[in-house]
Structures are given as structure tokens and as C-alpha cells.
Amino acid sequence: MALTITCPICGKRNGYEFRYGGEEKGPRPDEKDLTPESWCDYVHMNQCVAGVQQEWWFHRDGCGSWFTIFRDTTTNLEKETPEAKE
Amino acid sequence: MKDIKRHSAVAFKATPLKNQTYGDWDVVLEYHGEGDGPWLVDLSHRTRLDLQSADLAAKKPFGITIPEVYCQSVLEKGVLINRMNRIQASIYHLDGQSMDTPKEKEYTDVTEATIFVAIFGSNVFSICEKLSALDFIGADKQTPFLFQGPFSHVPCQIVTLGREAEKSGVVLTCSRGYGKHMIDGILHAGEEFGLKPAGEKRFADWINSL
Amino acid sequence: MMNRFNHLPTLKIDVSDKIPFTYKGKTYYGTKGDTIATALYANGVRIYARSLKYHRPRGLYSMDGECSNTMMEVNGIPNVRTETTALKPGMVVKEQNVKGSAENDLMGFIDKMDWAMPAGFYYDTMHKPAKIWPVAMKQIRKAAGIGKLAPDHHMPGKYDEIFPSCDVCVIGGGPAGMKAALAAAQKGLRVSIMEARPWLGGHFEYRSSEYISRQTHHERAVQLAKEVEKTENIRVFTHTANVGVYNNNLITGFQVGKESDSFTERYIEIRANSVVVATGCIERPLLFENNERPGVMQAGCALRLANTYGILPGKIAVFSIGHDLGLETAVALHDLGLSIPVIADIREDGQDPAMLKAVLDRKITILKGWVATEAHGGKQVKKVTIKSVDGTISKTFDCDVLVASAGFTPLTGPLVVNQAKLTYDNHTNFFLPTDLPKKMYAAGRLLGFENAKSIEASGHLAGLKAAYDCENCSIADLGEAKKAMENLPGPARGTKLVTAPVKGRKTFICFDEDTSIKNIKQSIDKGFDVPELIKRFSGAGLGPGQGGIPGHNLPLFAAKYQALPDIKIKPTTVRAPLVPTLIATYAGTNHTMFKRTPMDEMQRKDGGIFRNIGVWQRARYFSKDFTCKKEIENVRTNVGMLDGSTLGKFRIHGPDALNALQRVYVSDLSKIKEGRVKYTAMCNDDGCVIDDGVVIKRGENDYYFSTSTGRAGQTIEWIRYHTRYDNWNFAVINLTDAMGVINLSGPNARKVLEKVVDIDVSNEGFGFSEYKEFKISDTIPVRAMRLGFVGELSYELHVPSSYMKSVWLMLKEAGREFKIQNFGVEAQNVLRMEKCHIILGQESEQRTNLLDIGLGFLWSRKKTGCKTVGVAALAQAEKDNTRLKLVGFKMENNGRAPKDGSLIVDDRVRGYVCTARNSFSLNEAVGMALVEGDMSKIGTRLAFYEDECKGELIYGTVVQTPFYDPDGKRMKM
User: Where would you tag: which of B9, C48, C395, C637 has the fewest CB atoms within 10 A of its CB?
Assistant: First the structure.
């Protein structure tokens, strides 16, 4: 796979080694006062940006870490920071 | 019940020449026709431990300091310790008498969970590149170092112990269930380079030469 | 067979080594070093194939496989590019796409029918009335298409794969590529070179002309190649075609094995830090009438036939060329004995003076501003008409070879597939790469350089730029290399002529698809005005050559025909694979990779029939009776052994171990006691049940738990994911493979077990749902549970994998007096189904939640503050009565069981069958199904619609569950 992901433990690796864990959305909301709608939003609603997004990856074939990276969804390349632009 | 034996998931077709018992294991010291290398040696009877702790720096398994740098390893007194991530290290017993599991709860004996083999001798990395995209010969690493990644499409821990000519070699663990097919895959990939199964003596000689 | 040169320093053949092969059933001889095409050429073959549509004769044209002209069937494999495939002893070579022979093709008359087949005639004519199409399609497909392959064809040979890494990868092993590799390697970097031809040297390799005084281009190529080969940190892959370049510089190719190699072909996937593309040029085809008649060939082809393969292409050759390589070829072939009546050079001026002098010295007529307009001769060239470029004056010459070439075409494929843009350059007449991706550089001829020194210097510079990306080159070094370039000639002026002054009815822009200039005009006239559309409408560039022939001319012609002031028109997009590649090569070695349990060997010996189930190979049956009657009855009445080793098994420990379990399991695990087995389940965030298993407390914050087989690989990932924000301190260890599991089940299970172990296994000593740890013979540590998945007295023994064989043999020995038997996964499936114990994935699918399958009792509503995964959704779903419910059913009138997966219908689909079997234990057919809520009441009649039942429904009724031993006495006895 052309995609590479930089694991904070193992370094830059082939994208096949990883599983995608979705956009970064912050921790699970508290159960108190949770409406069905806000719960559904947390689980299912995504930003789907055309640009740089922070997202979770799991190094499934490697060290077994969950971590986030910044990736430009239009080029499928990793970025150092959320602002990074070509 | 005298017939209690332990069996490795690794079985070679080669004919053993010398055997030795090691606890309840039958260990082959030497096979017929081991050739001139590279070699594949089964070490599955040797103890592997998992150590997980939020404070790894405070742990000194067998008196050895765990490497601070991720994926770096240290080989001391026949014990190989590999830093896996922030909270985890794997410990392999490579040489000498058997190793007891420390009593602390943070240690788990995972000997049974994996197969454990060594591939060493000339052309080892030519065999590896047929089975894995991991870069064993990249300049930015110092032996011994750990790879946690796919080998023959199976997640493995692979520690490179030597990178110089015929002293080149790695030790590898993967899920025990994949044992047979992993060995088949390695031997098939190594066929063109003369890879042969060898006994533990060959491994000991190599470790001592490093 | 003609005489072949054997004295040229550039030769790659050994004329003393004859190689026999079969062509059209007769034995011929080539020489060592030949390709199939050159061996055939040496044997006088000129017509290699017939074209796809018009069955026109086709011959050797380019030598690099850009078109289908020389594709043949070799050793039963169709569409082999004979011009790039090495000849091997005993090859069987056949013609393709002919009725009769390529020489006398009975379908040849179709060439005269071209008026009936304008561009897009399929689309225009064959769709009305619709009835015609199936009939027409059959005939067309019979006539067209190239090569045949049996569906059960087994590809012979060994196919391998390698995945090397390097710092700099150079694509193209010509002078620029070699200089780039050397520059990067001298900076201490690991370099790989990929070269499509079997040797390094590129367009220097086959040229005997002067590079510098007293050194030929060929000698220079050899010198550079030697230097490259002796450089330790350069790895050379020759005969390796580049097929793809992807993001992050992932480069793929395939290498053709030499005789000494262990592979026929191998797939190569290189990950490089930076890349230099120096793929050079091919020639741009000259467009005139019958421009693909056998005997017409490009300059490089003619020159390589002679210099590389020792074959003089013919006796008399007319040249119609637009570059100095054409003049050089004429001079070289003249000196080898070829008679050249005339050279028509498209250019009015700008020829290399030295080359021009060499032509004149040999008294060869050269007409500047002239071009070939028509090749004559039915099957081979016999005569050529040339005209002044304006079309006013014409001359005709007899000949048997026409060397024709309009100019050069840069091979930009590797750049374009990695998202580089192409922009038209007026000076070179090339589409040049612009906006190169990061860490990717172009060098050499493909940038338009023709001067040898410039080519090398551009390679050197690109190599340093690549090294700079690897932080191994200084700015000063780069500056020096740039300066050196400035003092050398820049890109050469390219010829602009697109078509000779012809009407173009038989002027082929694409050979593979028989697309003529006239067809392109027709396409544009119909409104398909840009190359991407013209390509799809007219077929130009859709053939096996993938645009190698029309790629450059098509956008130029489209611009010219529409009189566009500016060539903003873009070439069509090229895509990987850049070179056609065997599926076998992509497949590579393909090792079998499945898991085997510690009992695998013993079960195979006992006659187990294995199936690949998920990542495991498991014993599914122990006899050919796939209903498993004997296996089932044995468990119900006696005692059986099942291999349950594939169950996921984990240790979790550390201060936050319980917190982590509370997060993912729906039950309240703070209440479980040591020595007890707690059955529970995990849901996803939608409340859909994803896993079930047991949890055992072995100490404070130290648990042993099991998962279903299919979930074992994802369990750690799942727990870590759902605790990723919590900073909890816990450790999970996957022990799935560390423990073998024997399930000892049946009324006699206790009698067998008590012979093997020392602990009290009576119902009082080891009751249902209890957990024990003990040792067998003071040696083998066992973790034992009393469960009842199959509905009988049952012990599940977890044993370290290496001891499993010993324990297995002990149990078999102990069970001998009871005639203990194995049972497999299918028997277990029926046994548990009779008991209505679910298997996730069978009694559930992605949308099935915990409540739907009746496991709601596992959910602890009082457990708060744990943020348990899925409970928010479960709380909502509880009020929803539209969901499917799991029910048990029996068949009416002693009917047979429906097939698994059958639909439950009334006037619409109302549910489906999960598992159903003819039960031997109950003497009737029973099963479980997921049905809409209103159909879940006891007594509801269910109608089953089976796959291929042709409307014949079968019927059953919803009944109480479980079917077998409803009081659960047997598993607790």
C-alpha cells in the first residue's frame, strides 16, 4: 500500500499494518443527561474534511498502540501539524 | 503418567543427530546435513516473558536495565530484552540454563503463546526481503533492535542481532498457531539460498560469536 | 536463415550458440541472446500477426513492446510480447488472431470494409433494434479479440516477490539513470536501479557512434555500467519493468528471471525515500498511409536489429525521419551493407553538422523537408512514396524496409502515475512533466536533452537532488551540479510534424485498435473533442500497448485538426500497470498462512476433515457423514472430545484491569467471585452484540477471560480503543495460542476425567459454572471450567499448548473403555443449536443487538459511571418493538429443516433462518431464526423461502426454547 503511517513507537510503516480508528472526536460523553441524538452524533457524525484531519490509527500488525496522526485527505499524505499546507 | 512431554509447534523434516532433554522438551542439538548456512533453528522451548508496567524504568528483570528507546533491545547474560512500547517489554531467554519467571504480577510467561526461531548466516536479509517489507539493513538502527511488524503476512516480533555477513541473523516470534505455515514459508523463501534446519548448538555458536 | 553479424562490439547475441524453437509446427533456430521476434526476423518472418479489427498484416515496428504487432502465443500463453521476450530452447510459438495464417489470413478482406466501420460504429449501429446485439456481439467477438486462454489454465513457472527498501530508487538504467545512481551512491546512500531491458546502458548501449573522440556511445555505456555494478551500495535490477509509482515513493515492477535465477518472474515492491525517473524516450510514430505495413519500422528498431541482434533489417531501405538518430541509423546501416536510396528528413535545417557530413560522405541522398506519404505493397513494403512536407512534389522509391520516425516521445509514465502534471513545451514539442511530487526528480532524455553530456549531467544533478532529500548532500554540491548543466546544451528542438500530407484513411494512429486518422476526425466531428473522449470513442490507446503508439500523436493531432492556437490539450491519462503484467507475477509466492491448533496433528491422524474457518484450520467433521449423526449421538449418550483451542484467551491485570473490563462488558464484573465462571458479552456503540465469552477472576485486578474465535484478533485493540482517553494502567496479554482447549462432553465425561486428574470432579467437588486450577501429575497446569455449551455434562480444560498432546493422549487412553470419540465443529454446532445456545455471527448479524437474541439478562442496568460501550444504545433500543427477535421453531408434519439463511416470508420478507438441522436427538427438524417482533409469539406459523425453491415454501412453527433438555439438568448432573 502506498499509504504510510508514522507510528510513534515503530516509525514510518506501510499502511496495511494499521487499522483506521476514525476521526478524533474527544472522549466519550458522560452518560448523565445524554440524549439519543447527542449520543448518535458522537458515534456516527463525522466532519469528512477535504484537507488535514486528526485521526486515530491502531498498529495492528505492530506494537499494538492507538495514536493519532494528521493526514491530508486530499493527498493521502501525513502532515506534521494540523495547519501544514503544501 | 511418565509420558509427559512438551512439543514445539515447529517440526523439521530433517533427521536429528543429537538430542538433549530440556525439562519436558526434547531438544535437537544437531541435525543431519545442516549445510553451510544460512540456518533455521527452533528455540520455542526457551522461555519468553511479557512484562507490562506503567513504570518500566523501575523494573530490572534479571538485573538488566530495560532500554529506554522504543524498539531497542539489549542482550546480556543470555537474556534478550526488547522495549516494545511505553509500558511493555518482551524478554527472551537465549542462552544458558533455564530461566524462571519472576514472581511479580507484571510478568506473564508467554512461552506457550508463540513459536521462537532464529534465522542466521549469510543471505539472511535476502530471505527476509522475500517475506517482509521491513527494512532490516537500514543505516539508522543499531543491533540488537526490535521490529514489531508483519513477516510472511503474520504479525511478529523480530530482533536483529547481527548484520555483518555470515554473522547476520534475527530471532523471530509469532503466534504459535502459525508455526507450521510460518516455517514452511521461511524454508521455501530460503531454499534458493540453501537455508537448512539446524540444531541448537549451531545457534549457541552464533550467539557466542556476536 | 540469414547470415548474422558476429563482429560488432554492440552485439548481445552469440551466433555460435543455436537455439531451436517451433514456429507454426516447424523447427527453426535462433541464437543465444535473441528475443523471439528477432529470431523470427532472422528466419525471414515479416508478418507476425494480424490486427484486431481489420486483420491487417503487422510486423516488427519498435522493439520495446509498445504495440500488439508482435504479440504471439508462446508455450500456450497468449499475448506474449515476442519483441521483449527472450528466446528459450524448445519454445512453441504460434500466431494469433488469424484464420489460416498471418501470411494468408482469410479475414484479411475486412481491411477493405473499413468504410462500414467508422469510429464508434458499435455504439452507433448495433444497439437498434436491441435484438440484434446478442447476435452481432457473438460474431464480432469471434472476429476480434486477441489470444485465447482456457479458463482452467494453470500458469507454469515460479513466481516470487521481494520488498526491498532503499534511499534512492532510479527508474531507468540509461546514462542519466546510471549517473544519478552513482551520484547518490557516492553520497553513501543505498540506491536501486530498475531497468526494463536485460542490460544497463539505455540508448547509448546499441550505438557505435562517437561519444567523445576514441570512445563510442556503446563503450561509454559499458564504462558506466561497470562503474555502477562495482559500486556496493547500488543494487541493479535489470530486465525489470517499472509498472507503478505511488504515494510516498512506493515503486513496483516485475523482473524477468535469467536462467540462473530461482524465479520465472518476480514482483518487486521498493519503498524509497526519493526517486529519480530517467526512462528516456521512445520514438513518435510517423503518420502516413499504411504506416504500419510490415517493413515499416522505427529508427531505433532498425539500428538495434543490426547492432544488438546482428540482423540487417533488409536490402534497400528508405528513411523518413525527423531526428539525428535517424541519420545516425542510416549511416550505421549503410556501413553494414544496407542500400539507402534516399533519406527524407522532415527538418528543413538543424541537423547535427557532423552527422550530415557523414551522410553526404557516403553519397546518400538526403531530402530536407520531405516525408513519406504512403507505403505500397500488399503484405510487405515494396515501394514508398515520399513528398515534400507541403505535399506538392512527390517521388517513389523501391525498397523492402522503410525506416520511419517523426521524433521522440518522452516516457513520462512513472511521473504521471504519481500525480505529476504534463504541460506542452513548444521547443521540444514534448508534454513535459511539471509539478513533480515531493522527492521525485526527472532526468535525461525525457526532458528533451539530446546531447550526451547534458543527459549525463542532468542525471548527476537529479541524483544529488535525491541525495539532498535524504540529507546526504550539501547545497554547495547541488549548486556545482546546476552550474555544470548551465554550460551544456539545453533540450533539443523537436520536430512538429504530426501527419504527412495525406487524407488518412489508412493512416493508423493506433495499431492495437486499428484507429486511423480518419476515425479521429470522425470522433472530433461528432463532438468528442478532447483526447480522453476521442480515446474512448475511437478506441485509440485502449489496446494492450496502452497508448505507447498513439499517446503523443493523439493530443497533437486533436489540437491540429481543431486548429487550436495553443496546445493546451492534454494527453490521455496513463495508469498503472505501465507495462502489462502477468496476474501470476502479482500473485507472487502466496504462501498458505493459517493457524493450527496444538491438537491439529492428532486430529488429522484420527481422520478429521479440516476446513479453513477464519484464520484457523479446524476439524469440522470426523467422518464423511456431514450430518455428524454418530458424533452427535456419542456426545448425547457417551463422551466426546472437541478441540476448542481457537477460543480467544486473555489475561488482563494491573490497577485498572477491572475498570477496563467494566467498560467493554455489559455485565457488572465487580461482583464476580474467584472460582466461578461468569458468562457475559460485549456490544459495540450501537448496542449490537459483537462478542461473548467467560470472565474468571484469578486475583485482585487479575482476570482470565475468553472471547469467541473470530474476535480474538481484535480484542486488545477493542479494549485499548475504548479506553484510549482514560490513561488507565492495565495490561492485556493475548494467550489464545498459549492454551489449547479440550472440551470433554457427555454423560461419561466425569468418569474419563477422574482417571486423569487428582482433584475431586464430583458434582459437589466441581459443580456447574465453577472454575478450578490444578496440575496433572504435579506437572501440567490446567485451568478447568464446567460449562454446558453442548447441553451435556462438560469440562473445558485449558492446557499449555506444548503439553496438549500429552493431555490429549491421556484422555484418549482414559476414555478407551468408554469408546471416547472425537467430535468436530459441525457436531458442536448442532448440539448447541438443539440447546439454543447462540453463536455470534450465526444467530446474529451486524445489526443484531444484545436484546434481540435474548441476552438482555447479561446487561447490568445498575452498573453506572463505567461508560460501558453500547449501553446508551441498548437503553434506546429497549423501547423499540420493530426489531428482529430470535426464536426457535419446529417444522410442520415432520418436515425437513430449511437451509441456513432461508428467508421467512409472508407477503414480504419477515426474517431469516440462522441455523436449522434435522435433529437426531429430538427426532425432528428444529432451528433458530431472526424474525420481526410480531412473529415471535409461540405458535406463529413461519413460511420458509429457500434459495432455488421455485416458489415451493415449507412451513414451521415458533416453539419454546431450548428444544433439548429444557430444564438444563443434563449439563448440571
Answer: C637
Domain map (residue ranges) of chain A: 1-25+44-86
pLDDT value at C670 more than 80: yes
End residue of a domain, out of B77, B109, B141:
B109
Domain match, B28 and B132 both: yes
The full set of domains in chain C, from first to last, is 14-113 (3.10.20.440), 159-282+410-486 (3.50.50.60), 291-405 (3.50.50.60), 600-645+738-831 (3.30.1360.120), 648-734 (3.30.70.1400), 881-972 (2.40.30.110)
Tell me how far apart the alpha carbons of residues B198 and B42 are, in angstroms, rounded to a whole number: 8
- Cβ–Cβ under 8 Å, residues C233 and C185: yes
Are B139 and B95 found together in one domain? no
Q: How far is CA C483 from CA C432, C460, C478, in A?
A: 22, 12, 9
B10 is a domain residue: no
| Overall number of domains in chain B | 2
Chain B contact present for C737, CB below 8 A: yes
- Which of B131-145, B149-163, C292-306, C736-750 is least confident? B131-145
Crossing angle of the two packed helices C452-469 and C475-486, in degrees rounded to 10: 160
Global confidence as pTM: 0.93
pLDDT at C109: 75
Span B129-185, pLDDT tens digits:
999 999 999 878 899 999 999 999 999 999 999 999 889 999 999 999 999 999 999
DSSP for C766-828, written as a single string: S-TTBEEEEEETTTEEEEEEE--TTSSSEEEEEEEGGGHHHHHHHHHHHHGGGT-EE--HHHH
Query: Under a CB-based contact definition with an 8 Å cutoff, are residues C631 and C606 in contact?
Result: no
- What is d(CA C444, CA C467) in angstroms, rounded to the nearest whole number? 17
- What pLDDT score does B84 carry? 96
CATH code at position B34: 3.30.1360.120
Fold of A1-25+44-86: Folate-binding fold (3.30.2270)
Which of B59, B83, B109 is a domain's end point?
Answer: B109
Query: Quick one: cell of C715?
Result: 480484542
Contacts of A4 in chain B (CB under 8 A): none
Q: Order of strands across the sheet with C821-822?
A: C771-776, C780-786, C794-800, C739-745, C640-643, C821-822
Cβ within 8 Å of residue C154, ≥6 positions away: none
Query: C-side interface with A, Cβ within 8 Å?
Result: 246-248, 250, 271, 685-686, 716-717, 720-722, 724-726, 864-865, 867, 871-873, 876
The answer to whether C162 contacts chain B (CB < 8 Å) is yes
Amino acid residing at B201: K
In a domain, B6, yes or no: no
* Whether B34 and B94 share a structural domain: no
CA atoms within 13 A on the CB side of A5: 28
What pLDDT does residue C546 have?
Answer: 81
Question: What part of B 24-63 touches C (C-beta under 8 Å)?
Answer: 24-25, 44-45, 50, 52-54
Task: Tell me which chain C residue has its CA closest to the CA of residue B7.
Answer: C802
| Band (C122; pLDDT cuts 50, 70, 90) | low
Q: What is the pLDDT of residues C610-635, one digit of tens each?
A: 999 999 999 999 999 999 999 999 99
Interatomic CA distance for residues C292 and C70, integer angstroms: 12
Tell me: do B135 and B192 sit in the same domain: yes
More confident residue, C907 or C139: C907
Q: Same domain for B40 and B133?
A: yes
Name the residue range of residue B62's domain. 48-109
Length of chain C: 973
